[in-house]
Design a protein that fits this description.
This protein is of the alpha/beta class. The protein has 3 domains: 5-97, NAD(P)-binding Rossmann-like Domain (Rossmann fold, 3-Layer(aba) Sandwich); 100-312, Mur-like, catalytic domain (UDP-N-acetylmuramoyl-L-alanine:D-glutamate ligase, 3-Layer(aba) Sandwich); 322-464, Mur ligase, C-terminal domain (Protein-Tyrosine Phosphatase, Chain A). It has 15 helices and 21 strands. The longest helix has 23 residues, at 442-464. The termini are far apart.
């Protein structure tokens, strides 16, 4: 735990006690902060009280007593409308902050030399965060990973000058972080997402840009137009930028040509290593993730001769193009983390004969942008709320069935793929949708897919005996 000693002796309101909220309350309390918590959910409040966090109805409280409001990143700061606690805090002149901001505040106060790699982007940030952590640990570096990827940042071990911190940052967390200042900041890409919380793409892009703008070293993916403009804007402001690309060469940074990773530095182009045969890093999008990790770790002073072996030993992450099974030439792949069309495109680009399971709660972009991949899709199996909307896009272009549920979609897709009889078929869950219509999280959806696959294959084996 990292106690928030910079707020010792003050009274702090913590709103949102699920996820990172409880660890934040405990980190504040451990430093002698008077914590007052609230959550709009009764069950969450009961859990917080059981964990020793004082809870009171803050809507009617005297906000002049609070030195700050620590807001959960899941609670609206601006869009679609500010949460009532945000309005109360603003009316009382109370600063609003988040746990990532407190993390950087503590680092600045007590151990500013502790290296921090902070990673953001619409897609790929979890894989990149995990890959960077894995690579550093493989090279013997003391590394702690947290943030949006799992362990709340204030639950990480205490700052030490030699300890490297790898933090995944969502746009919600960045929006609450006035003190963010990583050693290396990575921005991977921008695609339409979270506009219900940020209003416009310009605002969304501006929030993402704060992370790399505040970093000592900026690493920026330039494979989409908005991110390329971000890199150019940073340079105009006098910042040195390492560009990363999986589709073209760069003059200063790291890029991929096919599966080969190249370093461009001081006018020279050096081949570093090859990703060929590394199943966990398949696809153009993973080549971009690798380029980002290599560029970032070089800025952190890692040995370039050791990077290839360390990166290529990465086992992959669950729910990110996760191989689940292979049977009679058919692959079953769990890409439940693909909650928007841009993320699904990365998986669709990686396979040639696809039996696609898609749908859920649609985001604003739909799947119209994926029509370039339709020739690779043999059939689509639609699930969840988006079935009608996606069917309208697929009509006349890709055969589809309304499967309703993931479990039914697996049965239908697996049966069709096995009947296909051709090697290279892939039953792919890459929903291009949020999961919240039928599941609590994308992880729960991916787990349901894996259970359904194993159940189907167990039935296959039983029938063949």
């Amino acid at each position: 735990m990292i106690p928030v000693s910079t707020l010792a002796g003050k009274t702090i309101a913590v709103v949102g006690l699920g996820g990172s909220g409880l660890p934040t309350a405990h980190a504040l309390h451990a430093a002698g902060v008077d914590v007052v918590g609230w959550d709009d959910g009764e069950a969450v409040r009961d859990k917080a009280v059981a964990a020793g966090v004082p809870v009171e109805p803050l809507e009617a409280a005297d906000w002049s007593r609070f030195a700050a409001l620590v807001l959960s990143p899941g609670i609206p700061l601006t869009h679609p409308a500010p949460h009532w606690s945000v309005l109360r805090a603003r009316d009382a002149g109370v600063p609003i902050t988040g746990d990532v901001d407190l993390f950087f505040q503590e680092r600045a106060a007590h151990c500013p030399s502790a290296p921090v790699l902070a990673i953001t982007g619409t897609n790929g940030k979890s894989t990149t965060t995990a890959l960077a952590t894995h690579a550093m640990k493989a090279m013997g570096v003391d590394t702690a990973m947290g943030g949006n990827i799992g362990v709340p940042v204030l639950d990480l071990p205490m700052f030490e000058p030699h300890r490297h911190y790898v933090i995944e940052c969502s746009s919600y967390q960045i929006d609450l972080s006035a003190n963010i200042a990583p050693t290396v900041g990575v921005h991977l890409n921008l695609a339409e997402d979270h506009l219900d919380r940020h209003g416009t793409m310009d605002n969304y892009a501006a929030i993402k840009a704060r992370l790399v703008a505040a970093a000592q070293h900026a690493v920026v993916g330039v494979d989409d137009l908005l991110s390329a403009r971000m890199a150019d804007a940073l340079e105009r402001d006098g910042k040195t930028v390492s560009r990363i690309s999986a589709v073209h060469t760069v003059h200063e940074g790291v890029y991929a040509v096919g599966s080969t990773i190249w370093l461009a530095r001081d006018g020279a182009q050096d081949k570093l290593f090859d990703l060929g045969g590394v199943a966990s890093l398949k696809g153009e999008h993973n080549a971009q993730n690798v380029c980002a990790v290599v560029a970032a770790l070089l800025k952190l002073g890692m040995d370039p001769t050791k990077l290839g072996e360390a990166v290529c030993s990465f086992p992959g992450l669950a729910h990110r193009m996760e191989p689940v099974a292979q049977h009679r030439g058919v692959s079953f792949v769990n890409d439940s983390k693909a909650t928007n069309a841009d993320a699904a495109a990365r998986a669709l680009a990686s396979y040639e004969r696809i039996y696609w399971i898609a749908g859920g709660r649609a985001k604003s972009d739909g799947i119209d942008s994926l029509n370039g991949f339709f020739p690779q899709i043999i059939k689509t199996y639609l699930v969840g709320e988006a079935q009608d909307r996606f069917a309208a896009t697929l009509e006349g272009q890709v055969p589809y069935l309304r499967a309703e549920t993931v479990e039914r979609a697996v049965q239908l897709a697996a049966g069709d793929a096995l009947a296909d009889g051709l090697d290279g078929a892939c039953v792919l869950l890459s929903p291009a949708c949020a999961s919240w219509d039928q599941f609590a999280s994308f992880e729960a959806r991916g787990d349901a897919f894996k259970r359904a696959v194993h159940s189907f294959l167990e039935g296959e084996r039983t029938l063949s005996e």
